[in-house]
Amino acid sequence: MTIKYVIVEQQMMSRRYVAMRGVSFDTEAEAQAFKAKQWKPERLHVESRKVKDLDASQTMHCQCCSRAIHAALGTIAHHGYQRPGVGWQTASCFGAKRLPWEADRAVVAEVIDHLKERLLRSEYARCAVSDEIEPVTHHYQVYDRTVRGGYRSKTLELTRDTFDAIVKANVDDVFKYSRTTFDEFKARDLDKRDREIEQLKRDIAEFTRRYAGWKQTHKWNGKLWEAI
Q1: Cα(22)–Cα(78) distance, integer angstroms
Q2: What is the DSSP letter of 53?
Q3: CA nearest to 80, candidates 101, 53, 62
Q4: How confident is the model over 193-223, as pLDDT tens digits?
């Protein structure tokens, strides 16, 4: 058994302490340093946990995110998805609870189809905003001491016809910084959409390359993964 240090937080309703998902450390000092950087660290505690040692030979790679994940039950264990090139993580990866990359590539084909659909929608939406068929979208944050992290996300939908009225009605002073005209907000929105479209194209190219170069290296014998 291996000792790991985790960050636990007391739940508001049950008052139980629950460990933060996906966060563990080899030393207590590392855990304490991580805790100190969190919002309201006084609500957090460091606890040691015994972790069962894993068989390294049963660690495979996720078809979607390519991370090395334990697969001793025949499929890739549950884990979060890290988007290529950007780094943010969702609650569940497409490749979780599916066969590993060493044995299958079906998830890669699904991801390619999903990304292509997103690309079409993104390109259509970009054209609609450019032609001013759809409003310009501006996402921003305002300080709010009542929410965790201290900031709350807000969205403005701006059109050329209603821009002046929205400026007068806005109470968050979002217009007092650099972008003061409708065209400046529109350019910012289009630039963000362009970057998202280019990232989608890079993701599609990467997954397509991986799919084409795939070769099976392992098989499942009902109990363990074996190299072919």
Answers
A1: 10
A2: P
A3: 62
A4: 999 999 999 999 999 999 999 999 999 999 9
